[in-house]
């Protein structure tokens, strides 16, 4: 039985007919993918935020500049204040139109210390409400020049009545400055006196030659040009020369200063007997008329009031204002610096109105 093989096949559709009618040959290439546009549309910009942050940045820069200028101004104001005025710290309350100013002299006297005392005295003189001063002394003395500057400021430039109040140690140059005052009050435990002069210098011969192998060479115009010399021990003639040229004139001035300050109590010959460099306690100093009274600060204040002819007064003490330079410690880096000036000071004889325990 014959059957047609194609009777059960589905009829060909248009695509099959197209394929059957297509001539034989290689297949057509695949379709290429569609590429995206060469320049895509940029995203929308957020211009509002950029303007906001730009304003913030500008304000920040301006604020920093203003703060920097304010800092410079504050430093300048502090520097000017440090140089021009001192703060007043009230010690005892009273009427502000009638004041007693306490001037502090503390530590070893040098040029800087003398300038500080001069600043305090100058401010007291320029204040018409100040009726008297108290020189509070706690010093073993120091340089002849510094001691004499303080004496001159009180004795010759300050017309206000003055009382010296001695605390702790008020010896040698400390006593030298005290006799410029009209009265001297000493605390019961004070050490004073030591009227005299001390001088010295360093001999570096063995250190230079034996330890370091350095041989100094001195060329001079005269025999005494290098008297004394740090490069050799002094002779007896050199010691006598220094005594005659330096020690004796400084000593005689000290004696004359004490004689002038204590002329109501002591004669010149009595002062010379006391001026052998000896130190005295408060009672011994009073017995020898080197001081007028033994007491405390209140007693010195009463003395100042009596000299000024007033019954009540505001007692104040001068204080240095805040110093920006001190805050930064600008001078600390020079504490251990040794330069030419330091070497010169070590090798040059120095005369001092100074009480010292060194031998």
Question: What can be said about this structure in brief?
Answer:
With 359 residues, the chain is of the alpha/beta class. The protein has 12 helices and 12 strands.
What order do the helices and strands come in, and which of them pair?
Layout: H1 14-21, H2 47-84, E1 87-92, E2 99-106, H3 111-126, E3 130-139, E4 141-143, H4 144-155, E5 162-171, H5 173-178, E6 183-186, E7 191-193, E8 198-200, H6 205-211, H7 236-261, H8 268-274, E9 279-281, H9 282-287, E10 293-294, H10 297-308, E11 314-319, H11 324-328, H12 340-347, E12 350-354
Parallel strand pairs: 2-3, 2-11, 3-5, 5-6, 5-7, 6-10
Antiparallel strand pairs: 1-11, 4-12, 7-9, 8-12
Helix pairs in contact: 3-4
């Amino acid at each position: 039985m014959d059957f047609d093989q194609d009777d059960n096949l589905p009829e060909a559709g248009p695509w099959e007919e197209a394929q059957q009618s297509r001539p034989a040959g290689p297949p057509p290439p695949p379709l290429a993918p569609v590429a995206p546009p060469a320049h895509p549309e940029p995203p929308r910009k957020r211009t509002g935020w950029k303007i906001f942050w730009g304003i913030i940045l500008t304000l920040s820069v301006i604020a920093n500049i203003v703060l920097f200028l304010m800092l410079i101004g504050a430093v300048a104001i502090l520097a000017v204040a440090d140089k021009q005025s001192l703060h007043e710290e009230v010690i005892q309350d009273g009427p502000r139109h009638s004041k007693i100013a306490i001037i502090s002299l503390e530590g070893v006297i040098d040029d800087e210390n003398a300038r500080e005392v001069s600043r305090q005295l100058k401010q007291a003189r320029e204040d018409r409400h100040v009726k008297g001063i108290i020189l509070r002394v706690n010093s073993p003395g120091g340089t002849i020049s510094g001691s004499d500057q303080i004496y001159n400021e009180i004795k010759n430039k300050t017309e206000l009545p003055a009382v010296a109040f001695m605390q702790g140690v008020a010896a040698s140059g400390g006593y030298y400055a005290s006799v410029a005052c009209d009265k001297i009050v000493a605390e019961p435990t004070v050490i004073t006196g030591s009227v005299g002069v001390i001088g010295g210098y360093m001999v570096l011969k063995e250190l230079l030659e034996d330890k370091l192998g350095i041989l100094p060479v001195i060329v001079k115009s005269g025999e005494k040009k290098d008297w004394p010399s740090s490069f050799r021990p002094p002779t007896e003639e050199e010691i006598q020369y220094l005594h005659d040229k330096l020690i004796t004139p400084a000593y005689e001035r000290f004696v004359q200063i004490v004689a002038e300050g204590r002329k109501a109590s002591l004669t010149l010959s009595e002062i010379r007997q006391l001026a052998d460099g000896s130190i005295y306690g408060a009672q011994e100093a009073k017995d020898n008329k080197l001081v007028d009274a033994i007491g405390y600060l209140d007693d010195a204040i009463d003395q100042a009031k009596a000299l000024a002819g007033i019954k009540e007064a505001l007692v104040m003490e001068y204080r240095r204002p805040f110093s920006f330079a001190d805050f930064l410690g600008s001078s600390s880096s020079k504490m251990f610096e040794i330069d030419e000036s330091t070497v010169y000071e070590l090798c040059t004889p120095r005369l001092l109105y100074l009480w010292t325990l060194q031998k």
